[in-house]
């Protein structure tokens, strides 16, 4: 697999960057809270720019970079796995072994009927089991959210069992690490723990590529759907969303429970 890096000058990128802020909406993580997301729509995206903003807690979806900007709340913290010091636990190694025959293909992000069917199946399952809000995604929505803006550094890991697509893991391969954008899988294969396995493979891939981190997105204390992240120690946490001229102050972190 050849990974090509685009080192476009981020100052040039900033001239193609447009700001707009979404109106207040109900928070998905904390009951009775409101959320305001800062959106930045970027016309020309480089791995260098994406690395710098990911290091500062931003998240990329398509050509849009977002981070929360809630004046009265600071519960969203960024997490990243320390790849160089990571040791797979016995249970994680068992998950890896169970997937010995799972085929993984590294591709550019794309959308097909197969993608849409699997995505909607996963979210219907999560809506029923965990109460997630859900409406089926269209091809246009999927393309704008997960395909646009990927350029050379955006990849999708496709997982196949017996020739069937069972998991799609969307990532950015950056200058210093892998950013986990989004993962969805077939809930009819619980034995394979595909959500866990996809993250374990990201760690293995980062190690193979000589990268230091796997960026996991946000941690919100008490939010059930983020609980899995604390199982991937050692972790570092970032408080806040520093400006581009500030150095991000990542600190070692372990959940208290």
Automatic annotation (TrEMBL):
Keyword list, A-Z: Acyltransferase, Cytoplasm, Transferase
Reactions it catalyzes: N-terminal L-aspartyl-[protein] + L-leucyl-tRNA(Leu) = N-terminal L-leucyl-L-aspartyl-[protein] + tRNA(Leu) + H(+); N-terminal L-glutamyl-[protein] + L-leucyl-tRNA(Leu) = N-terminal L-leucyl-L-glutamyl-[protein] + tRNA(Leu) + H(+)
Q: Where is the N-end aminoacyl transferase N-terminal domain?
A: 26-94
Record-level GO cellular component terms:
cytoplasm
State whether keyword Acyltransferase applies.
yes
UniProt xrefs under Pfam families: ATE_C, ATE_N
Q: Which GO terms describe its molecular function?
A: arginyl-tRNA--protein transferase activity; leucyl-tRNA--protein transferase activity
- Which EC number applies? 2.3.2.29
Per UniProt, subcellular location reads as:
Cytoplasm
Residue intervals of the N-end rule aminoacyl transferase C-terminal domain: 114-239
Q: What main location does UniProt list?
A: cytoplasm
Q: State the function annotated in the UniProt record.
A: Functions in the N-end rule pathway of protein degradation where it conjugates Leu from its aminoacyl-tRNA to the N-termini of proteins containing an N-terminal aspartate or glutamate.
- Give the family from UniProt: Belongs to the R-transferase family. Bpt subfamily.
How is this protein named in the record? Aspartate/glutamate leucyltransferase
According to its UniProt entry, this protein's organism is uncultured Sulfurovum sp
Q: Which gene encodes it?
A: bpt
